[in-house]
Design brief:
Blueprint lengths: L26 E8 L5 H12 L2 H4 L11 H18 L2 H6 L8 E5 L6 H12 L15 E7 L2 H8 L5 H6 L2 E5 L8 E2 L6 E2 L8 E6 L8 E6 L2 E11 L12 H4 E9 L14 H9 L6 E5 L1 H13 L4 E7 L1 E2 L14 E3 L1 E3 L2 E2 H10 L3 E4 L7 E7 L7 H11 L4 H14 L5 H10 L4 H6 L1 H7 L7 H16 L10 H11 L3 H15 L3 H13 L3 H14 L4 H16 L15
Helix pairs in contact: 3-5, 3-12, 16-18, 18-19, 19-20, 20-21, 20-22, 21-22
Length: 576
């Protein structure tokens, strides 16, 4: 891609122009640009391309609300309902479905892949109830993880948690630019999805994606439409590289407005967005309001509607406006900075876009917090009965934002929750490993005797097995296997603990405390030579580790004496 240059940069054969500043002394990088044409979107792509999975594993971009077991279970229930709708007699007639071919579930911007993994886990639990297929042992759907950067795709290919789904034939990968590509080229199967090859409707999943794609900004001032133009500034004296994604941290937007027409603002393929502007201008409730149009997301939907021959089920979660009254008031567009940046998504505009093409939508009912919406094309409401019911039950009473708020509030506001409360929260979460990690020390302290009965300990063992089954190793600083090992040690189940410590070494690397705890476990089951080996490995990593040296000496003494275990005990240590 050709490097953008401005008056700030010298170029051979071209005279560098004099830098421009605002009246307050800020350096102007870009002056009064249409928002969707601004240089800031190039920084967004460069940021995710450079950071790769590190954008999430290093904690730069927040993502818990869209990558936990609870939301994955809710999405799975809605998708399962749609599967049954598509392959029902009415669905096959109206959607023109082909049960000999899979329904493709495509996730836009799968990023680190954790949500894809959790969603696949939840869908696989429903295997017994899948609609029948004409080919034995074939799943009625194929899950496709997509992203625009190959860095993330290479990460998925090599992630151990995704390999079982690859072997089952449930998942494929694709490099896909959401705003521009007209086809989806599958990497593993070699197939190309387009209007000629796609035999069934498509489920499209997009969480925290539309808020990072291109937008246009407007305001309606006394009933008149005004376009918002962005001036991009920096507080630095010079910015030699205008492609540097680090500019996200230090740029400042300035806004100006001028009157425009809703009749022909959008041109070409985007001309179908003009009626959305016209409707908003005509609404009395929006006479004085600030409007964002997610043109990047709508470009993607336009392409996929064409690709699917108008048979699309779009399930999306984002920071969004569901209702027009959320857009009332004159204010500048807000760009939130969080490593990358994001803008509010106008789900109301997306709703009208689908309705203009004969579709319908479903939305979470609340105006505050994270929103989930589903937009449907290709069939009447009456045909999509199971998906509509699943959305109502999963999203419209206690949705993903409610769960995220609940678990955070218990952690922050209940200093000493009961064991049963924490276990109940873990079960409500769908056995989420991040929720477990937040309450790990409390559980480790409380599940041993005399705090927990044998029955409760058996229940905890069952819960922990399910938590680990949903664990997707991503960040070495969040070592769930290590903490589960400590939990089993607190219940004196040393054989079980050892396997988790071994997994910790595999997934998160060598650590002196992991080897130390393995040594304790080997000691308590009477395997003194293995205990000695573990303590030696701990000391090899940290020679001044006093506790490991003491236990190494004990093991040497025990082995030399060739007799039973030393009655002296040892303390269970964390890494801290």
């Amino acid at each position: 891609m050709e490097q953008r240059r401005s008056h700030l940069q010298g170029q051979e054969g071209v005279r560098a122009q004099k830098p421009k500043y605002t009246p307050h002394g800020a350096l102007v990088l870009e002056d009064k640009s249409r928002l969707s044409h601004s240089m800031i979107w190039n920084w967004m792509r460069a940021f995710y391309d450079q950071q790769g999975v590190g954008a999430w594993s290093n904690g730069i971009v927040p993502n818990f609300v869209t990558t936990n077991c609870c939301i994955a279970k809710m999405y799975a229930e809605v998708i399962f309902g749609f599967l049954n709708d598509v392959f029902s007699p009415n669905g096959m007639r109206e959607f023109k479905s082909d049960p000999s071919e899979p329904l493709y579930v495509v996730e836009l911007g799968a990023g680190h892949g954790k949500f894809s993994f959790l969603l696949l886990k939840q869908l696989l639990k429903m295997k017994e109830f899948f609609p029948p297929t004409q080919t034995p042992n074939q799943f009625p759907f194929k899950f496709v993880m997509t992203d625009f950067t190959e860095n993330n795709i290479n990460f998925w290919k090599n992630h151990s948690s995704l390999k079982p789904f690859i072997e089952l034939g449930m998942v494929d990968f694709a490099k896909f630019d959401a705003e521009h590509d007209l086809e989806i080229h599958l990497i593993l199967s070699g197939k190309t999805l387009n209007r000629h090859t796609l035999k069934n409707p498509m489920v499209l999943v997009a969480n925290y994606i539309f808020d990072t794609l291109r937008h246009e900004a407007f305001r309606i001032n006394d009933g008149k439409l005004q376009e918002a133009l962005i001036t991009v500034t920096s507080e630095r004296d010079a910015e030699p590289d205008l492609n540097d994604p680090g500019l996200i941290k230090r740029f400042r937007p300035k806004w100006s407005y001028h009157q425009t027409s809703h009749k022909d603002y959008f041109t070409g393929r985007q001309a179908d967005l003009n009626p959305i502007l016209a409707r908003m201008v005509s609404r009395t409730a929006l006479r004085n309001s600030s409007i964002l149009i997610p043109v990047g997301g709508l470009n993607c939907l336009r392409n996929l509607i064409e690709l699917t021959s108008g048979r699309l089920f779009f399930l999306s979660g984002d920071k969004a406006y569901n209702h027009e009254n959320e857009m009332k008031g004159l204010r500048d567009p807000h760009i939130a900075i969080h490593g990358s940046f994001s803008m509010m998504v106008n789900y109301d505009a997306v709703r009208h876009y689908f309705e203009s093409k004969g579709g319908f939508s479903m939305h979470t009912p609340y105006q505050d917090g994270f929103k989930v919406a589903s937009f449907v094309l290709g069939a009447k409401k009456e045909t999509v009965r199971s998906a509509r019911l699943a959305f109502q039950l999963a999203m419209q009473t206690f949705g993903p934002d409610n769960f995220s708020t609940l678990q955070r509030s218990i952690k922050d506001m209940v200093p000493n929750p009961s064991l049963k409360l924490v276990l109940s929260l873990l079960r409500l979460s769908g056995y989420d490993s991040d929720v477990f990690y937040k309450f790990k020390q409390f559980l480790i302290d409380k599940v041993g005797h005399p705090y927990a009965s044998e029955k409760i300990q058996q229940d905890v063992r069952r819960d922990i097995r399910q938590i680990y089954d949903c664990y997707y190793p991503l960040s070495k600083s969040k070592d769930v296997a290590f903490e589960i090992g400590r939990l089993f040690m607190s219940m004196k189940d040393y054989k079980a603990a050892m396997q988790y410590f071994i997994d910790s070494l595999r997934d998160c690397g060598e650590h002196h405390v992991t080897h130390y705890n393995l040594g304790l476990c080997h000691n308590y089951v009477g395997d003194f030579p293995s205990a000695l080996s573990a303590f030696n490995k701990s000391l090899a990593i940290k020679p001044d580790y006093h506790e490991a040296r003491e236990w190494r000496n004990r093991m040497v003494h025990k082995i030399n004496q060739i007799q039973g275990s030393d009655p002296r005990g040892g303390g269970l240590l964390s890494r801290k």
